[in-house]
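Intended use. Records such as the Sorbose reductase SOU1 entry shown here are meant for training and evaluating sequence-to-structure methods. They are not intended to support clinical decisions.
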Amino acid sequence: MIHTLKIGRPPACTRSFLSPRFSLALPYNSRFSKQFHNSANGAASSAPEPFGVLKALQSSNDTVPAPTIFSREFSLVDRVALVSGGIGGIGLEASLAMVEAGVRAVYCVDLPDSPSAEWTAVRAYATRMQSIGGEGRLEYVSANVRDQDQMWKVAKTVGDHCLSYPAQTFQEVLETNVNGVLFTAQAAGQQMRRFERGGSIVLMASIAGHNAFKDHALVQYHTSKAAILQMARSLACELAPEGIRVNSVSPGFVNTRFPKPFLDAKPELAQIWENMNPMRRLAQPHELRGVLVWLASDASSFCTGSECVILLSTPLARI
């Protein structure tokens, strides 16, 4: 989940209810969202700063125009990001992308007591990087709310028929993939409300929330990810008056450590997954960086309640 917030100092990151799966949250004082927030609450607001064609038409011939698409719309300068599941995979890629976009600090929240060697190396890299106006800090926070072992238990049930799927395991998947995401969104939204500056929340869904795949016994995963799509829509409707945007991202099959237990249990899935995509390969985590920064930034200021489907499977993969 992503939250962006433009503030004087980064807020303290508390050990609250956080999902072990990737999510990203960025609270911010957006030029666009703050104006919308003020008007939505009946407050007087100043004229918005012009961008794009409007700025070009209002520009004086005596001035030298400067590009704004990356320095302003896509910029995350003075924002603070919270990334749950940020120790590796898509979460770590998102964290580094936030640093490159100029955030003041990224708090990576995950289950282990200490970060991985991979995360530590990326942090050192980020520290050496001269980010665009930001401090380029990666911070690690251990939050043991959901048990990562649950995901490996789920992997052992791959192939279990829907009529015999264990009830307890089904409940554990919902606790992790649905309840954990909601608790994270609540914690982030409460901070955004506290600062009264709006924000952006990005929930990580999946193509499995849109499609049910032939030759896959994944009723638990399909159900949980479909719930995230509707959760994002509902949160977007409730939080829009406060200037808080909520969107979801649905990747196809991504080459991270998460699918490894599934592939170990059923090696033939690798070829099946590759054949579902017209490119005949799995996605790499870095290929989601662009859409995540876009949703976190002012560049997507009119986007809320939306689903961004990445690397959609071919229709042949659907039932």
